[in-house]
Amino acid sequence: MQATVCKAARTKEGQAFIAGAKGARDVALDPCRAQPITLVAETRIEVGQGAAISTKRPAWERMYEHGMALVATVSERLEEARTVLEAALAKAPDAKARAMVTVQLGWVAGKQGRADDALAHVAESRKLLAQTAAPGKPAPNPPVLDAVAADALARVWRFEEALAPAKACTERAPQNSAAWVIYARVLGSAGDNAGALAAATKGLELVPRDPDLLRSQATALAALKRPEAAAALAAYDRFRSPDNSAELRIQCAADSPRCARDREQVHTLVLKPTRR
Fold first, then answer.
1. What CA–CA distance (Å, rounded) separates 152 from 105?
2. Which region, left, alpha or beta, applies to residue 43 given φ > 0 means left and ψ of -120 to 50 means alpha?
3. What is the dihedral of CA 126, 132, 135, 141, to 10 degrees?
4. Using one digit for the tens of pLDDT, what is the confidence trace for 10-24?
5. 69: burial class by Cβ within 10 Å (0-12, 13-18, 19+)?
6. Ramachandran angles phi, psi of 185, nearest 5°
């Protein structure tokens, strides 16, 4: 893919695109540079008749990671994640493992608009984690639990209810820009424009060009009738996604099976058996 893009970048049209991108987004593009590829993990497994079990990792853990990855897919395919995670939950050996799987089921429920189911999964995860606490120690309370709750509630416009978990998530994970995105959005939707501006500002310290944070900043400044509102709106317009980005992705997927696969964060490759 990089070779194709590099070749196109050397054409007259490609050079014009690079020049335009630099002027619009303050970026310097060089598609021909060596890619900084980092190997994060590697797994090898054999399938089929005569396959040898070459991994000591338990089946529930592999299914859990597979399901967790599928949570990032498009909403039309979220049932795939749910099916895999439910299979992992059935094999989870202890309370910690069940809590790990259950919170991912909460993400799925929230993205499907089933906010109450998502909250139930979060509550169940808290109960399971309480069982893992050492004597005299508080139960683990990872920020992901609040993130799932805030996201699920915000998706169905229950913004007042989403305030507490969204705030808690920023307190427990202050370096996570996604936490500030949801908190700023919830505050603004609940009518707290000053709070939304403060949250957006904190997030923009981490990711200055994030379009969601720039939008929250611009909206809050306009509502507060601040003189910086016009400049903030211009910054959002500069870095926001194009209006036709979804249309382009759909068209790309329709025209090319390779593009249809690569537009997803998790690739699904159909394996075909071979006979010797």
1. 12
2. beta
3. -40
4. 999 999 988 888 877
5. middle
6. -65, -45
